Amino acid sequence: MPAALLPWGWAAVLFALYATVAVRRHLLLRTTGYDLGIFEQAVRAYAELRAPVVPLRGEGFNLLGDHFHPLLAALAPFYRLWPSPLCLLVAQSALLAVAVVPLARWAARALGRRPAHAVAVAYGLSWGIASAAAFDFHEVALAVPLLACSLEALAHRRWRAAVAWAAPLLLVKEDLGLTLAAVGGYIALKGGSGARRLGLVTAAAGAVGSFVEIKLLMPAFHPHGGYAHGGNLSEGYGSLLSTLAHAPLDALRPDVKAMTLVLVFAPSALLALRSPLSLIAVPTLAWRMMSDNGFHWGTAFHYSAVLMPVVVAGLIDALTVWRRTGHPLASRHVRASLATVLAVTLVMLPSFPLAQLAQRATWRGTPHVGAARALLARIPDGATVAASNRLVPQLTSRCTVVVFPTFPVEGKLYQYDNKRLPPPTAQWIVHDRRAPEAWPYKTGHWPYPIERQEAELAAAQERHGYRKVAERDGITLLRRG
């Protein structure tokens, strides 16, 4: 393979891996309304030239009030051509895969062709990317290639190009303005007097951009005002000084936080910590570790995807610095380091979602999946439907769908303890009483325990005018009137 094609060859291989896992999960009913269904409703609205109002998040809920991600509209033309949740899953696979191109290209120039292969494996099979590729669709997929290109530009001291690649992060998610600020800080630190002004302006623009999005823009779009995820913010210790004093310990408690901090840099065998580029990961790690939401502390879901290009860039940078020393053992050190990186990658691989490719269940349909598809086919296009979380994304391309039982309540997340939920108003209800197969995540019913779900299903028939149309293999289809 010609050297110029090496990075693109890896991108093609990784795209095939990610897309295979993502598509098979969807076909096996493992994708969810939260989050694939939500993002499909938003992109579908953009494709139809409407505001991204998402029924799954609440009546009249503009998704820009949940997270600030107007760059999602870039996917609308593709969805217009292929109106399917698979469009989003394939697009995400492509975005995550193409990020390997600037990293492998940089590694090939700085370290050589063979090390570039090792770097591509370290990125492509890293747990942070695997977890994102195998859990629905999320807007951060747009950030991963942008940040990878920015990091390559930083490595070659192309400061303006680095800022140009990183600037769109402000349109991907509200916290990524802080990552843009970190890029600016790196330029100010490393760029000398000529680039210092550019770095400082970039850092200020990123910080101010995130502040404006969180404090002004998102509350303007949110039906109830305020920051939708403000409840995840720690209340602190009564004063700014006390909060700052406790921050180092809070970032490591409970133990899962410390474990995640180690695992974030594990794909580089911790060598990325020797590079100042790793400082660009600090904003994302800081808000996650200081959050009150336990989901942010661990290794599951999509939260670490944006960190993986930073970690791999730090690895390349650290090894490049060593090679430039001219030490007689430099080549041996690089080879040993990359061998360790590959060993760590392979050891961690079975614990994360790409291992699904080696499982028989990934390649076999089940009678339950067949029963679900048969019942869903009876729901006409354009209908309004309340569906179990795992059935939602099977319908969002052709129906208006909400989660059954009602969630969220009045557009507010985590309202689990209401004594009485609002009654369903959709034309159809489709409910699956079987706990979904959700490896590597916990198997269980969401958003309410199965007893609560079945009580609401019974109430729909007894009190709210729904009648049973069909029932197969634990899946119940109701129609109103």
UniProtKB/TrEMBL annotation:
Q: Does the keyword Isomerase apply?
A: no
One Pfam family per UniProt:
DUF2079
> The organism sits in which domain of life?
Bacteria
- Annotated signal sequence range: none
Q: Which UniProt keywords apply?
A: Membrane, Transmembrane, Transmembrane helix
> Which spans are transmembrane here?
81-104, 261-281, 301-322, 334-352
> InterPro entries this protein is in?
STSV1_Orf64
Q: Does the keyword Membrane apply?
A: yes
By what name is this protein known? DUF2079 domain-containing protein
Organism phylogeny: Bacteria, Bacillati, Actinomycetota, Actinomycetes, Kitasatosporales
